[in-house]
Design goal:
about 130 residues; alpha+beta; Nuclear Transport Factor 2, Chain: A; six-stranded mixed β-sheet; 6 strands
Length: about 130
């Protein structure tokens, strides 16, 4: 085996891991390749109002901070692949001093899985040290 994912579930899991590691290591080039050109990130503000970022704004957010020390801290909670064209991933990731809960939407475009949506919120619980 050459290390390539053999199923859609494995391919999407591999992208979810790459996503978490790229956030931890501040690697906008990973998101440049992973995200579809029409990618949209949405967060809920403290007042509950949605805040939106497009792909360019998201790449700027990632590239504007230094990588975190140590190994990434995250957990992939669920992956749902529907048919052969769409997938949904729920995960949490520590971005000190906070933990975020992310819902990622992928779809197959040109034979490749691409990230098209990210909906996230600050997870409940205390702020992380560091």
């Amino acid at each position: 085996m050459d290390g390539q994912p053999t199923t859609d579930l494995e391919a999407v899991r591999s992208l979810a891991v790459a996503y978490c590691e790229a956030i931890h290591r501040s690697k906008p080039d990973v998101f440049e390749r992973m995200c579809h050109e029409n990618f949209l990130m949405t967060a809920l503000s403290g007042s509950g109002a949605p805040v939106f970022w497009d792909k360019a704004a998201y790449l700027e957010r990632v590239s504007s901070r230094d990588p975190f020390a140590g190994e990434p801290s995250y957990e992939i909670l669920s992956i749902d692949v529907s048919g052969d064209a769409i997938a949904h991933v729920k995960l949490w990731i520590d971005v000190p001093p906070r933990r975020f809960e992310d819902y990622l939407g992928f779809f197959r475009a040109g034979g490749e899985w691409r990230l098209i949506t990210k909906l996230f919120r600050t997870a409940d619980g205390p702020a992380l040290e560091g």
